[in-house]
Amino acid sequence: MASHAPASPDPEEEELDSEIASIRAEIRKLQKHKRILTSSLLTTDPVQKLLRKPQPPTTNPTDPLTRIFPLVHAAGAHTSSNHHRIAFGATAFPFKDPSPAANGVTLLGVRIDVCTRNGRFAKPYYVILQKERSRAGPGAGGADSKVLKVYRHTVPAFISIAKLESVYLPRPGVTRDNGDGAGGGSSGEDEDTEPAKPWKKGGNSARKQDLRGFVRELRRELVAWHMRVDAVEFLREKLGLVGEGGGPLPFDVSPDRDTGIVSLAAVAIEARYVRIEWVDGRVGRFKLSNTGIVERAVVIGDQGRDKKVEDAITGGGGRVETVLDRLRAEVLSGSPGR
Amino acid sequence: MARPKTVRAPTTASLPNNLRIPSSTPSLTKSLGKLSRQALLDLAFTWLDDRNVASFPPYLQTDEDGPDDDDALPYPAGKTIEEVRQAYEDLQDRKGAKREVIERILEGDWRHGITLRQLAMADLRYMDDHPASLRWTALELSRTDTKRKNFNGLPPTDWSGSVPRMQSATFVQSLQREISPLVKAHYHLAHSATLPLTFLRIFVVDSPYQSPRQAAEIFTDSSRVIYVAFPDSCPYVYTSIATSTGSKSAPSTSSVATDTRTLQRLVRDSIPKALSRPQERFSLQATSLAAKNLPTLLALRGPGRSTASNGAFSIFADAATEGSPLDPRPSNTVSPEEHIRASHSGPTEGKENTNSPATKRRSSGIDTAPLSPDSKKRRLAIHSRFGTLGSSLAPAPLDRLDIRLLDKPGSSDEQYDDDVDDSIFTPPALSLTFSGSHVIGGIRKLAELGIVDPERMPSWMTGEEGVSVATVRLGRRLQKDI
User: Fold this and answer.
1) Domains in chain B, start-ordered, CATH in brackets?
2) A-chain residue closest to B231, CA distance
3) Terminal-residue alpha carbon distance, chain B
4) pLDDT tens-digit profile of B422-450?
5) Which GO terms describe its biological process (chain B) (predicted)?
């Protein structure tokens, strides 16, 4: 009996349940909207200016102004930090590691914001740096100098933090075994050169850490990745390969009328390579540079390489955004040949 | 296929895709029977797809030698491929047992045998449906070559990680070149339908012949199958340790068991070599992570954000504390779930796929009920220690966590493991093994119940290191396992 009840619920009840759920969702939506509106209102210029004018009398605890004072203050602080995030893209913050082994040492967090094509911001990327007392650097500035070390980060794996770190945040004598192996490029090199040139190590440790350079290069790489992803997405939209919700279409797509392309997609998450398929079975692949230029392209059909299409993809300045236009032009000009 | 069966010469070629396993092999029914009915139907449709039908031709009437015994068989051969397709569409439309689909495949349309490739596809489909069916070990690919002379001078402009550019066909070819003198193998490479992974399924036999004379059972022996998974865009490789599964599933003679292990080791050793190119040598290194769940590996050693920030730092991986800079609301007034959901504009589909169900599940554990100040304090501490990780159903359920403690039992600052401390008398090192469906989540639960002090527990208990094997001294993981 008890098991029977949930198996076939009353249709009326079900209807009521769904109605309640939808009303709750509506309430949540409105509440959210209200909160966005209040926050926006609090950060508007007039309100903030009102606050900066002569202080309101704080003696009266029931005064509404007194009560909203911390709110307005928080909103102001939040907006200004948002302005920094939007304008500079990289902001720093302190972070306290809650682990007891960390002894309450404050870590340095760097937040990187990247704006994507749809005008939104991607999830911010974080790099948490640890200050480390540099041990016995012979050429470094004494025992007390502190060096930074990447402790945690949320950067995708195909951007090598270890490489960036070894160039911009070198630490004396640590290049060899930084544990995460991915710094193999630099560590291996030390192994090669050290026996031959012992002075090299001194020169290496004397190199200054350059946090600005580190963040700049990292951000550049992240932005480039987002640009590549956006460019591929843009091309897919132009080809009509993207559905309404941004997802792939549920049905088989018809080939693009002018170029005959049936599929265009980034090869991996890194979006460094883009793969194209034509309706006649040709497949192509091109490589995107960080600046949005098509660096190389290969198109292979049944009769081998299709050099004309390859030239069309890489030619004309090589901008990735106009690849389709060039392909169209190529098809139109070369139509008797096909 | 036209190769006469009588001529048998040892070759170094790989086992052909179209090598047929007789459909009467009983274990074939078993290995297909692992799949769900829908999966079987999907497979049949894939095999009958216009692009694939040449590789997996079904048994048609034209193939029949004589017109006899047609009625004796339960599944008359179809006249055209279209007809066969229709038969499966009918099966699709009506409900029924998966038994009938298996029988239709084995006794009907592929009665002349299931090819190795079909079997591989079925296995990979099973993997897609059950990502926790095998135990995987994460290995890191690192470059061992080093001849970049101008390294100290101008900084290189290429910051991409050491991800080998893998062209599947070339890779399989060079892998074949590496292992063919020692092992006969069948390779199947496919991109996972659900995860951002490329699977390589290697089936190994220790026979030099093109069509091995062993019993057909050998082709379905799971201990002879090695899986290697290459996650997209990151320098990691996952392998299945088939030794553990092999010992369970194959209680065969010991010589065979040791043999498959050797074959597996050979294959494993040759993977980095096959990925390497001149001037670009790779080697595989252990990353002290093994787990049953592929999403776990993807979260901890994958291309995404959470690879290098776990435990307390998972709030950064999920961007759970701060929103987009366009959000006018102060960040402390917005719940973490909303942050996670709001900033979902992950730039790629692959990442989206891994993240969206994860975040949904992650956020479900963060609820705010009215609490006493004491438990509120504990809750805050738990949140700060575990971040978003381990709340109810985290995306990275570790099924096993091996910890070796190297602390002297007398040292005063190691009081966090009360239940363990009284068992220590003399041993200088102490090993702890946690196992279960979700170890970190369990520790979090313990902390929520007040059994574990969330403020004083060491960080390895929060999953911060993202490992399944660790050596710990004074609450810190030692980088090199001793």
Assistant:
1) 23-112 (no CATH), 132-144+162-299 (3.30.310), 304-477 (3.10.20.720)
2) A268
3) 53
4) 444 555 678 888 888 888 888 888 888 88
5) CENP-A containing chromatin assembly; chromosome segregation
